TrEMBL record:
Its EC number is 2.1.1.-. InterPro entries: Efm4/METTL10, Methyltranfer_dom, SAM-dependent_MTases_sf. This is Protein-lysine N-methyltransferase GpartN1_g143.t1. Keywords: Cytoplasm, Methyltransferase, S-adenosyl-L-methionine, Transferase. Gene3D superfamilies: Vaccinia Virus protein VP39. GO terms for molecular function: protein-lysine N-methyltransferase activity. It is found in: Cytoplasm. One of its GO terms (cellular component) is cytoplasm. It comes from Galdieria partita. SUPFAM superfamilies: S-adenosyl-L-methionine-dependent methyltransferases.
Length: 207
């Protein structure tokens, strides 16, 4: 099974469970992020610091959309969640409709985006687990993905990325010369083999 089929089958099961029993699926890393709220607060603080009046947000690989639905949409001029899994986006649409949410949803591959996304000049690009998922498809894809993010971001815009596979130093190195490190969120750390590591990294980079 390739990676795309894997995500499709996972979200298709979630979608069935949601339609039958009204049970939401997984918001990734929710056990470390207080159900996503730590990252919502992180985004809100960056939003408050952003001096421009218009602030748009694009979530690359939004999954079932649960995370985006935690944000206060009135703080953004537009929010778009996209994912290449058809079932993930169907589920996001259903949950969004239930909340009367103004968030837009789109089924699309980050490597083949329609013009309306490419021309978005996005203020904030959010990624929770998508860089990790893309790396699993092929390490060589990471460079291309970073370029997609850089091209989509508006000047002074933020890329906010959460990874369970990378350290902060590794993220800084991947984005070196393209985006500058701005700030990160702290998570519990552990010691292993004489080294200290965090369970998760969330960091904001600026264009
Ligand atoms: C670990 S999940 C995270 C989902 C969501 N961000 C969350 O935090 O719950 C990774 C997501 O990336 C999506 N994804 C992976 N590669 C993608 C690609 N090339 N284009 C669009 N979505 C992709 C998968 O379908 C999956 O929903």
């Amino acid at each position: 099974m390739d990676r795309r089929e894997y995500w499709e089958s996972l979200y298709s099961e979630e979608y069935d469970t949601f339609t039958k029993y009204n049970v939401c699926g997984e918001d990734w890393f929710e056990q470390y992020t207080d159900g996503g709220r730590k990252i919502v607060d992180f985004i809100s603080s960056l939003r408050a610091e952003y001096s421009g009046s218009d602030c748009s947000l694009l979530d690359l690989g939004c999954g079932n959309g649960q995370f985006l639905l935690l944000l206060d949409p009135t703080k953004f001029t537009k929010i778009l969640g996209l994912d290449y899994s058809f079932s993930a986006i169907e589920m996001a649409k259903k949950m969004g409709d239930k909340q009367n949410s103004p968030i837009d949803w789109l089924q699309a591959d980050v490597f083949s985006l329609p013009l309306r996304v490419k021309d978005g000049n996005w203020t904030i690009i959010h990624d929770k687990g998508t860089l990790d998922a893309i790396e699993l498809q092929g390490r060589e894809l990471v460079c291309g993905y970073v370029q997609v993010v850089v091209d989509l971001l508006a000047p002074n815009g933020y890329f906010i990325v959460t990874s369970c596979n990378k350290t902060l130093d590794e993220l800084v190195s991947i984005l070196h010369g393209k985006l500058s490190f701005y700030r990160n969120l702290s998570y519990p750390s552990f010691r292993f083999g004489g080294q200290e590591g965090a369970v998760l990294v969330t960091a904001a980079f600026m264009k």
